[in-house]
Amino acid sequence: MSQPETSAWAVYRRLLGRAKKYSFFLGAAGVGMVFEAGAASAFTWLMEPMINGTFVERDPEVRWSLPLIIIGLFVLRGLATFCTDYGMARAGRSVVRDLRGEVLEKYLRLPSSRFDTEPVPSMVSRLNYDTEQVTQASSDAIKVILTDSLTIVGLLGVMFWYSPRVTLVMLVVAPLIAAISGVVGRRYRQINRGIQDGVANMAQSAEQALSAQQEVKVYGAQASELARYTTLINRNLGLSIKVESTRAAASSVVQVLAATALAVILLVAGSEAAKGRMDAGSFVAMLTAMMAMLPSLKRITNVQSLVQRGVAAADRLFAILDEPDEPDRGTMPLLHARGEIEFRDVSVRYPGQDAPALAGISFTAKPGTVTAIVGRSGSGKSTLIRMLPRFYEPSAGAVLVDGVPVDQYRLADLRRQIAIVGQRVMLFDDTITANIAYGQPDGIDPARVRAAAEAANAAEFIDRLPGGMEARIGENGGLLSGGQRQRLAIARAILKDAPILILDEATAALDTESERLVQDALNRLIPEHTTLVIAHRLSTVEHADQVLVLDAGRLVEQGTHAELLARGGLYAHLHRMQFRETEAG
């Protein structure tokens, strides 16, 4: 996914191109940089009249006028610094805000298979950590590079003004500093790529441990989780130390070179003074310019770390933005489907797997009927229902809705025809009303939301909550029980009123009372919808219009509950096993 090492400038240029829309703020910052550098150069230039006029000639006019000029100069520099800092921060942070929005939008447009290859914590790290590194490269680093470069040019101009010979000695050091910066930059980029990968891995490890904290405690796995995390943070520490060591070494070498240049300059300046070509004021002005240049040289050397870190982060973000979107080649509109579903010889093979997840599946589900899908764990039940909203594409065959292959419909239109209630309900840290009305294109109608909650048997617990319909439910509904979360998901599906309903083991993890309430709500939801039910408890599918029995990705039996029991095949075997378990329980 990452670009070749030689493309660092191309990546940086692409990043800077995103700042064009904020050219006003960049322009203000640029003007501020010019004045900031000019003020620094003017101050060193004033050293000559200050020394000669005050201490050598003892001119009273100079003694009073120069301090006022210096005050005015630094007031101007302060205003210029504010313009520079504000302009660069506004432009840089705006670029990062845009990137964060674009990356999240891109993640939501990627195919579902993409989420099987990268953990969500790693994706969140891209949004948070990588974009923060881009901030430093797009604003902080540019400010340092431009301001200090202008300052160095201005100070060199002052030095040339007073003594070209002495200045030429100073310029001997410049190629050496440039060569050091090049070597340091390449090393920074390599190390920072590893650091950013490490941060993503740390986030993933920590989130897994904290999300499963109850299991970690019960199985006494605190030490192993801590050891895994410690390995990652130690690796990141090592890489961070390499960055700092490289930065410190480069900075030290540059300072030694600058000190050597200073010593040589002192010798040359002494020779110039002996020949009458330099007076005390000129020498102090040059010395001040040189000393003022050293911090700028040091910052420009160290800024390589910010730039290369930002380039590595931008490289990864652009790689995400350049990934192909979820395919949506359909052009046919679909306002309201009848709900007829047909799987025609559908096969699915996941990348890297030898055996197909589904092989030659064919069946039809008529509008207003219930189709139950049963089978052992790993038989392909979830894969089958993922074909319908096109979360995954079939390797062979076709899935049809109302006689049309689903890939011919516009993707958004197709998904508007489908409501899903799963075992793992996804709720948001918001109000009950907002969760039930989630995704409603016409906004929130409180009366319809309330009616959906009542139809889902959710009103009885909602009314007991402080705030009722406006009560917040915590992250993923953490303040509610499993049955209450399920009923909110059913209320959401009732409000959507889609012609196709998918129930993915919606009652599998519930106690008997919660299951009864949820099943009662589902019984109100199912009529007049084409319903596909993945069922773990076979007792819940006795009244289905047809039952599909999957085994190892193949459709091995099909019929009604009674027909399959009479046939004495796999379904009857699974039913007997569950019946024995129920009796034993």
Overview of the structural elements:
The chain has 585 residues and is α/β, with parallel strands linked by helices. The strands form 2 sheets. A 6-stranded mixed beta sheet has the order 6-7-8-3-9-10, sandwiched between helices. A 4-stranded antiparallel beta sheet has the order 2-1-4-5, covered by helices on one side. A hairpin with a 2-residue loop joins strand 9 and strand 10. Helix 2 packs antiparallel against helix 4. It is elongated, with a radius of gyration of 35 Å. The two termini are 53 Å apart. 36% of the residues are buried. The N terminus is likely disordered.
Give a brief description.
The protein is α/β, with parallel strands linked by helices and 585 residues long. It contains 19 helices and ten strands.
Topology overview:
Blueprint: H1 8-17, H2 23-45, H3 47-56, H4 60-109, H5 120-162, H6 164-171, H7 173-211, H8 213-218, H9 222-274, H10 280-321, E1 341-348, E2 358-365, E3 370-375, H11 381-387, E4 396-401, E5 404-405, H12 411-416, E6 418-422, H13 432-436, H14 446-455, H15 459-462, H16 482-496, E7 500-504, H17 512-525, E8 530-534, E9 546-551, E10 554-559, H18 561-567, H19 570-584
Parallel strand pairs: 3-8, 3-9, 6-7, 7-8
Antiparallel strand pairs: 1-2, 1-4, 4-5, 9-10
Helix pairs in contact: 1-10, 2-4, 2-5, 2-10, 3-4, 3-10, 4-5, 5-6, 5-7, 5-10, 6-9, 7-9, 7-10, 9-10, 14-16, 16-17, 18-19
